[in-house]
Amino acid sequence: MKIAVLPGDGIGTEIVAEAVRVLDALDLKFEMETALVGGAAYEAHGHPLPEATLKLAKEADAVLFGAVGDWKYDKLDRPLRPEQAILGLRKNLGLFANFRPAICYEQLTHASSLKPELVAGLDILIIRELTGDIYFGQPRGKRVATDGHFPGADEAFDTMRYSRPEIERIARVAFEAARKRNKRVTSVDKANVLETFQFWKDVVTEVHKDYPDVALEHMYVDNAAMQLVKKPKAFDVIVTGNMFGDILSDEASMLTGSIGMLPSASLNDSNQGLYEPSHGSAPDIAGKGVANPLATILSAAMMLRFSLNQEEAAQRIETAVKAVLAQGLRTPDIWSEGTTKVGTREMGDAVLKALA
Ligand code: IPM
Ligand code: MN
């Protein structure tokens, strides 16, 4: 088994280092190989996703990814920006199914921005389609008006589109996942306005015929955003498109206390996967040793479960994380009165200790 380790930028290197230590401590037989990605790869090789990094990722059974991006690259041409690395990996590896579980750990009920009773015991799974939608739809671009008299005629455009097979396969992933949980799927769309999402709704409804044991409801994305903070525990599995999923998963992360707790898995149809925290590179706190490594450590657990067939090891990590939270150790993002503030490395140390 081979794991490609791509730490990336900002806090990416710090948090991935802790996850790698945890993986090493498991004493399982896998090989890990590290490569540059994002801004770090751009600095070294002039491209955010160098050929060698892509090759390593393609050949690996799983990719452990940190984060990419920094404001200092905002002025680069789009194909050279760090974000293109993660988008390119998702597209090239066909990672269409993105799992973003939002679980509120008992000890963090008070770290949430919502009232504890609204989030206590929360366990929802957002399934975000990851290789289609307005993120990748063509045509896209910018048209500069050639007639200098009408600068207002300049425009930019992106294309929102989904094909039937793209919707069918993500709908199946969602129904299958729901079968292993509380058997409820909420499909989030904007069918009242957008053709793309009327089609989405129709296709999800068709696929649902094969899953009569799972309850399906449809919800407009604006209402879903509201319901997530009004009554989050009413959800079980949420399935939605790339852009709505991007937005709703950030919203859901706050229910759990911190986006620093949210892992993710992105899978293709051969269960090859990329595992990354749902948060970004946080350049504002990079290098300070205060980033929360738990989202990445929990992503490593998802990697063991989904791509490496090591369920037991995955559970060991998850149990260790819960133990550390129970000890009252908190990075600043989840700190609250009466708990002990620790840094990235200390948090990693504590997880290692709990594993042993
Ligand atoms: C995410 C991120 C990415 C996305 C960015 C970095 C391209 O926000 O993984 O949610 O929009 O998908
Ligand atoms: Mn995002």
Automatic annotation (TrEMBL):
Show the coiled coil region(s): none
**Enzyme Commission number(s) from the entry:** 1.1.1.85
Pfam families for the chain: Iso_dh (PF00180)
Q: Which residues bind Mg(2+)?
A: D222, D246, D250
Indicate the segments forming the Isopropylmalate dehydrogenase-like domain, all copies.
2-351
Write one Gene Ontology MF term: 3-isopropylmalate dehydrogenase activity
An example Gene Ontology CC term for this record:
cytosol
Q: Where does NAD(+) bind?
A: G280, S281, A282, P283, D284, I285, A286, G287, K288, G289, V290, A291, N292
Q: Where in the cell is it found?
A: Cytoplasm
Q: Which cofactor does it need?
A: Mn(2+); Mg(2+)
Task: List positions binding substrate.
Answer: R90, R100, R128, D222
The record's free-text note on cofactor binding: Binds 1 Mg(2+) or Mn(2+) ion per subunit.
Its recorded reaction(s) are: (2R,3S)-3-isopropylmalate + NAD(+) = 4-methyl-2-oxopentanoate + CO2 + NADH
Which SUPFAM superfamilies would you find in this protein's record? Isocitrate/Isopropylmalate dehydrogenase-like (SSF53659)
- Per the record, where is site Important for catalysis? Y135, K190
The UniProt family comment states: Belongs to the isocitrate and isopropylmalate dehydrogenases family. LeuB type 1 subfamily.
The UniProt function text for this chain reads: Catalyzes the oxidation of 3-carboxy-2-hydroxy-4-methylpentanoate (3-isopropylmalate) to 3-carboxy-4-methyl-2-oxopentanoate. The product decarboxylates to 4-methyl-2 oxopentanoate.
Protein's name according to its UniProt entry: 3-isopropylmalate dehydrogenase
